[in-house]
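TODO from last week: model Ribosomal protein uS12 methylthiotransferase RimO.
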Amino acid sequence: MSTNPPSLRPDLAPAARVDDSRRDGQPTIGMVSLGCPKALVDSERILTRLRAEGYGVSPDYAGADAVIVNTCGFLDSAKAESLEAIGEALVENGRVIVTGCLGAEPEYITGVHPRVLAVTGPHQYEQVLDAVHQAVPPSPDPFVDLLPASGIKLTPRHFSYLKISEGCNHKCKFCIIPDMRGKLVSRPAHAILREAEKLVDNGVKELLVISQDTSAYGLDRKYDKNLWKNHEVRSHITDLSRELAQLGAWVRLHYVYPYPHVRELIPLMAEAGSNLLPYLDIPFQHAHPDTLKRMARPAAAARTLDEIRAWRDICPDITLRSTFIVGYPGETEAEFQTLLDWLDEAQLDRVGCFKYENVAGARSNELPDHVPEEQKQERWERFMEKAQAISEAKLQAKLGKTVEVIVDAVDGEAATCRTKADAPEIDGNLFIDEGFEDLRPGDILTVEVDEAGEYDLWGRRV
C-alpha cells in the first residue's frame, strides 16, 4: 500500500510486469521498457512476436540470453536514464539490443555504449526481431510454446493500453517526438476494435486509449469507414469511442487535444451507465498566449476555459487531467502568474508539471531568454502548491459520496483501488483498509468515501 506522490512524472508507463514461465532449453529474452505507455505497447508487441517464435521472456538479466532495452527520448533526463539502463544491462548481461525513441539517434547510443549488439528506432519491430535472431537464434517447440490469446501483456491483467495511432502532425518547438516517430498514422478502426474485443474477452476490465494525438485519430485516413459487426464505423475518435464503450470494459481517453469535435465525446460520457469514462487527459502545456506561441501551440487559453465550462455543463462529473511546462524560454513572471490564474479558474482535477529542459534537436533550444534553473524550481514549487490545493479541495468534496472503483492490488494492509477519475500510476488511489481481504485485482465495486488527502481517498465498501 502506498500513496500517490505529487511529483510523479506524468509521461511514464507503469513498471513492466513479466511472466517468468519458460521450458528447459528455451532461448530467453529480457526486456527493459522505459518511457511512456506508447513505448510499453511497443514492448508488448515485440515480446508477443518473440513468444510466437518460441522465445521465453525473462524478468531479470541473469536468466536472459540477451536483453532488449526500449528507450525514451522525451527529455534529456529521460535520455540519460535510457543510457544508464543500457549500461546496466551491459554490465549485468553483456548482450544488449537497443530500440525505441532514442534508437532514432544510433550514433548517440553507440558513442557511449559501443558494445551494444544493435540499435533500432521506434516501432521498427522487424528490425528488432532480426537483431534478436542474429544474437539468439530461435528454437521453437510448436507443441509447447503456446501464445496467450491476448498476446504478451506487461500491465496487470485487468487493464491494458490500446494504441490507436503512431506519430504526430504537431510541430511544438520543445518536442522531438514527431522527428522520431513520424507523422500521424492511424490504425484502421476495425483493427483497433478487434484488438480491444480480444482484450476484453481475455479479462481486461479497463482500456486506456493512447496515441500521440488521440483526437486527431483518423485524420490521415480522411475518416474512412470500416466494416465492424455488420455496420460501418468511421476512423474518427467519436465513432471509435462509441464502439469501444459497447465492449463491456471501462474506456479511458489519454492525450486528447481540445479540438472542437472533442465536444461530441462529452454527451457519450454523460450517458447513464456509459463505459466511456468521464475523463479527458489534455496536454494544455501553458495558458499565456505569448508562451503558447513560442511553443508553437494553439494560443486560445480563454476559449479553452469556455470549452471546459461547456463540457462541465453537459457532464458535471467529468475529470480533467493535464500537463504543463514551467520555465519555458522567455517565460516572464507575468506569464507564469497568468498560468496560475488560469489554473485557479480552470480548476483541473489532475495536474502534472515539468520544468523545461533542453532536448537535443528541439527548436526551443535556440530561443532567447532561457529561465535560470533556480527560477524554474521556484515556479514549479508554486505551481504544484496551487495544483495540490485544488486537488485537496476537490477530493474533500467527495466525502460521503459513493463511487465505483476498480481494484489494482491487494496486500496485507489494504486494497489499492482507483475511481473512474483516476488513471493508473499518474493519478491518485482509493484505499479500502477494512473488509478487503476477499477482493482481487480487477474487481469493480461501490465504495463510500470516508477520508480524503491531497491526492488520495479512503473508503469503505457499500
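Done. The first helix runs from residue 37 to 52.
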